[in-house]
Design a protein that fits this description.
Length: 156
Amino acid sequence: MPDGLAGTGLTIGVVRARWNDEIVERLAEGVTRALADLKVTRTVEVEVPGCFEVPLAARYLAQSGEIDAVVCIGAVIRGETTHYELVADACGSGVQQVQLSTGVPVLFGVLTVESNDQALARSQGPGGHNVGREAAAGAVEMARLAQRWAPFRDGG
């Protein structure tokens, strides 16, 4: 995390997929730890069935006018069919589209991995690699960037 980064006064939305819940719970713990470390006290949490639904929930939060940034967490683990590619691509593209169309930072803490072992390695507890933690810190950083530069976005 960048030195001096603080989330005091921010409201961070968290969109969480239920599919692969064991992994997502580990990511959620990383999000919670990072936001607490950064002094974020206001969060809005939304749970959706799977990663395919994450972008729409992120859009609802981003358009609410009450959220400074959104963290999306989930896990897409490759299986035996092309379903993995469809879901991973739709989720990633959808999340990017939401932040570009709304101007609200939306961080991609969704794992797209080849195996459960890879997912476990990217969702470790305190002191280990946790993509949820990284996405939460990124959300605070991008929310501060948006606050600084948003007035200039529309020629203001």
